[in-house]
Design goal:
Blueprint (H helix, E strand, L loop, with lengths): L1 E10 L2 E8 L3 E2 L3 E2 L5 E3 L5 E5 L3 H17 L1 H4 L5 H16 L14 E11 L4 E10 L4 E6 L1 E2 L8 E7 L4 H9 L12 H15 L11 H11 L11 E5 L5 E8 L6 E4 L2 E2 L6 E2 L2 E2 L6 E2 L2 E2 L15
Parallel strand pairs: 13-17
Antiparallel strand pairs: 1-2, 1-11, 2-12, 3-4, 5-6, 6-7, 7-8, 8-9, 10-11, 12-13, 13-14, 14-15, 16-19, 17-18
Helix pairs in contact: 5-6
Length: 306
């Protein structure tokens, strides 16, 4: 279904929050142009889809509607910590109007739905929450992002993937003497986590520094390698800055030489004029200019360091 990653990117003394995702939804087939990242009118926060569309899309879209029409939210007078409390109440109330909900497949079944992340002007820090739904108890759970174990530094990252093996199944596999890695073909979260840990270890000592673009590199490679039929399409990327502003970043896909600009999962048409920074997925450089048409048709602008 999906792979969505949010992390705090550190470059020298500068930090920014990144959310990246693939563009594939599966039902009766694969559709690789589906938006999974959502900016908000308040600009200092965004949502990243990662779960069952039956839950995630209505919740995210109603939260965005709320921000648009609630002055304290879209003006940022309401800090993201307080805004999170509003969304928790909004989501709980929406559940009252659901009839004939699907029965849980197992005891305490928990499904990840989406990421809510942004910059708190009150605490002067980035914050990432994973939103999950416990179908057995019928309630939402908000989990803050933590660092990657053993990696050191400020490696705050949340990886959400569907399908994902539950912790109970993973524990059962360990007790049975089966390494959980055997399930990675059907567990994109575990696959991405293992890849990211391996990439970070290969780049040496992480003490004193945080993540750069390693999570995006993992997402890019999993899509290109077709490592799972649940993950595909152009990568999507949103960045949030300490200035409480956000930007959608286009991606040259599948590469700079043969690609077109994709924005939130959709390859732009030759005549489209969308003004946004564009990322080279291999060099990871960014062009901060208007891209008047698809790169393969001769359009583009100079690429420079982000």
């Amino acid at each position: 279904m999906t792979l969505t990653i949010a992390w705090v990117r550190s470059v020298g003394d500068t930090e920014e929050l990144c959310i990246a995702s693939d563009s594939r939804l599966r039902s009766f087939g694969s559709w690789d142009v589906c938006p999974k990242l959502f900016t908000t009118p308040r600009d200092d926060a965004a949502f990243g889809f990662a779960g069952d569309t039956m839950y995630a899309y209505p919740l995210i879209l109603q939260a965005v509607n709320h921000i648009s029409l609630h002055h304290a939210s879209h003006s940022r007078a309401l800090d993201i910590y307080a805004a999170k409390g509003h969304y928790m109440e909004l989501f709980k109330d929406m559940l009252k109007y659901m009839s004939d909900p699907p029965k849980p497949k197992g005891k305490n079944e928990i499904g990840s739905l989406f990421i809510f992340a942004g910059f708190s002007s009150r605490k002067r820090e980035f914050k990432i929450w994973q939103v999950r739904f416990n179908t057995t108890e019928g309630k939402f759970e908000w989990l803050p992002a933590g660092g990657m174990r053993g990696m050191g530094g400020r490696n705050f990252v949340t990886i959400l993937g569907q399908p994902s093996m539950s912790q109970s199944k993973r524990s059962a596999a360990i007790r049975a003497g089966k390494a959980p890695e055997v399930e990675t073909a059907n567990d994109v979260k575990l696959m991405a986590t293992n890849r990211l840990a391996g990439l970070l270890k290969s780049r040496g000592d992480l003490r004193g520094r945080g993540l750069n673009m390693e999570p995006f590199e993992v997402l890019r490679d999993l899509i290109r390698e077709k490592a799972s039929n649940h993950v595909g399409g152009p990568p999507q990327l949103i960045k949030i800055f300490p200035s409480s502003s956000s930007v959608v970043v286009g991606v040259l896909w599948p590469n700079r030489e043969a690609g077109r600009v994709a924005v939130l999962g959709r390859l732009l048409l030759p005549f489209e004029r969308l003004e946004c920074p564009v990322l080279d997925p291999d060099s990871l450089d960014v062009g901060m200019h208007l891209w008047p048409r698809a790169a393969s048709n001769g359009g583009g602008a100079e690429i420079g360091q982000p």
